[in-house]
Amino acid sequence: MQFVKSQGAGNDFVMIEDLQDRIRVGAEMVRLLCDRHFGIGADGLIRVAPATDADFFMDYYNADGEPAEMCGNGIRCLAKFVADRGLVGGDKLRVGTRAGIKDLELFRGPGGDVERVRVDMGPPVIERKRIPLSGPGDDALRETIEVDDFTFIATALSMGNPHCVLFVTDLDAVPFGYLGPTIEMLPLFPQRANIEFVQVLNRNEVRSRVWERGVGETLACGTGACAIAVASSLRGFTERQVAVKLPGGTLDIDWASDGRVFMTGPAEEVFRGTLDPRFVSHHVKTETV
């Protein structure tokens, strides 16, 4: 089985092409491939699968083996993967995800390979039950979260997956490794949540660190960057166009007047490889469809 290792702003993925829809992905397989010591190493696995209502389907799994609804950095890497291999022509692409179909625009470098991708992420979901969040109320734009001696006024929303955005005055002073996983698992979030700690720099720039549900800290999170931009605007901290600076790079977010959120960022192929047949036969079940 051939694979490609890709990254978008430092958020990295194992990419497997399966346009014949033969590979059945299991949680153990994902965990092993994403393991940074015994496997390839990645934040998640993407199976590039066929789709009936789009050009491709992004079958995405977090590093813990659980399927996820959407991945903003991952979908840019998928776009580069299929475009650079000539599996799609032109500079437009429609990709199916568990959060619906996403429209993408490809930007190519001098050699013709894709370097950046703009993704229509759709509108944010702020209705409490649809995020989802437990408890009363219609939304969670100002949600009090208390952990030990820490109190935050958080903003929760969904960009196809649940996010909790917490604004801080000094990002470097946050005990991130403790608060991230603790808040992720609060009963407030019945499906857990991605946790973003954000320091506002000015009306058009913020800094953030992200604790991703089922992964841990990642160098970037595409849906998280979108959630940050929306939350920052809703709280009055920034304009609707925001550069979100993450440890792995910067993602440019535009919350358009029609309610849709557009994310633009890089995609890069790191290396290609072949999985050992013994590894594949032991951990991957295939069938002919």
Defining traits:
Diaminopimelate Epimerase, Chain A, domain 1, 5 helices, alpha+beta, 17-stranded mixed sheet, globular, 19 strands, 289 residues
Number of helices: 5
Q: Unreliable runs, pLDDT <50, ≥5 residues?
A: none
What's the SSE pattern? EEEHEEHEEEEEEHEEEHEEEEHE
The CATH H-level superfamily of the largest domain is Diaminopimelate Epimerase, Chain A, domain 1
What separation lies between the terminal Cα atoms?
17 Å
Largest sheet: 17 strands, mixed
What fraction, in percent, of the residue positions are helical? Answer: 10-25%
**Taking all residues together, what is the mean pLDDT?**
95
Structural class: alpha+beta
* Highest CATH level, the class of the largest domain: Alpha Beta
Number of strands: 19
Radius of gyration over alpha carbons?
Answer: 19 Å
In the CATH hierarchy, the architecture of the largest domain is Roll
Q: Which fold does the CATH topology of the largest domain refer to? A: Diaminopimelate Epimerase, Chain A, domain 1
**Beta fraction of the residues?**
35-45%
Task: Describe, in plain words, how this protein is organized in 3D.
- The structure is a single chain.
- The chain is α+β, with helices and mostly antiparallel strands.
- The chain folds into two domains: 2-119 and 267-286, Diaminopimelate Epimerase, Chain A, domain 1, CATH 3.10.310.10; 128-259, Roll (Diaminopimelate Epimerase, Chain A, domain 1).
- Helix content is 17%, strand content 41%.
- It contains five helices and 19 strands.
- It has a 17-stranded mixed β-sheet that branches. Strands 3-19 form a two-stranded antiparallel ribbon.
- Strand 7 and strand 8 form a beta hairpin.
- It is globular, with a radius of gyration of 19 Å.
- The protein starts with a strand and ends with a strand.
- The model has no long low-confidence stretch (mean pLDDT 95).
